Amino acid sequence: xxxxxxxxxxxxxxxxxxxxxxxxxxxxxxxxxxxxxxxxxxxxxxxxxxxxxxxxxxxxxxxxxxxxxxxxxxxxxxxxxxxxxxxxxxxxxxxxxxxxxxxxxxxxxxxxxxxxxxxxxxxxxxxxxxxxxxxxxxxxxxxxxxxxxxxxxxxxxxxxxxxxxxxxxxxxxxxxxxxxxxxxxxxxxxxxxxxxxxxxxxxxxxxxxxxxxxxxxxxxxxxxxxxxxxxxxxxxxxxxxxxxxxxxxxxxxxxxxxxxxxxxxxxxxxxxxxxxxxxxxxxxxxxxxxxxxxxxxxxxxx
Length: 302
Prior knowledge:
Blueprint: E1 2-6, H1 15-24, E2 29-33, H2 57-70, E3 73-78, H3 88-107, E4 112-115, H4 125-146, E5 149-153, H5 174-183, E6 189-193, H6 196-199, H7 205-212, E7 216-221, E8 223-226, H8 228-234, E9 242-245, H9 254-264, E10 269-272, H10 283-297
Parallel strand pairs: 1-2, 1-10, 2-3, 3-4, 4-5, 5-6, 6-7, 7-10
Antiparallel strand pairs: 8-9
Helix pairs in contact: 1-2, 3-4, 7-9
């Protein structure tokens, strides 16, 4: 396994500065964000460290040279929109950009693209399924032709009133993963697994590793702290009772996580994803979050 981080937390830095920081701090890889240039519509979105709309042959060579200079790998290209958005025009835009990310990956020597399945939050899972069947086989055909694995992150995207009641990402539970992989049996279709999204759903995140570890193409290291007093007051349908934390400062048992990961044979990237508001005030705070997380996880990832 190789330890890295998700570049979204360093959104104001240039690509070269991100890679230099990774090299200086002993990280082996970075998941680089590839959002369309422009304003973000939510936290951690809208970061563009590689602009796939302008990534011609010369730019790809420039990026490969930066990787050689800093001796850092790209673990994956990341773009996390809603490919099943209920607005057909926006959905079309999202899918077109996702395909550009997929086409760019092999030109940079990258074999993984991470994203969401998407969802219409106002519809049930069953009512979302016809659109999944319409959209995703075509995306996966593009990925297979490019020789790229798609890593679906398992975040429900259910953190604000705008995303309730269903969230904006179908791929949030084992039952849905089984159905996804049955519908699309491609070996290029996998998971970008993040245990922090399961603990607050009361899903056994270690059992998930043992069942689905063979489908992991990428791994996000993020923790979650559950506030039992707030949970008591508002219940599971309320907001504010679980908080994203850096690894080691939440309730995830990382010893059991890495025990299961090694048993499953996973040898891919482990990328720290910082979404901890306690470390967001300044750029130095966010860099410190990555350093502290690396120090903690090095006991599991050599």
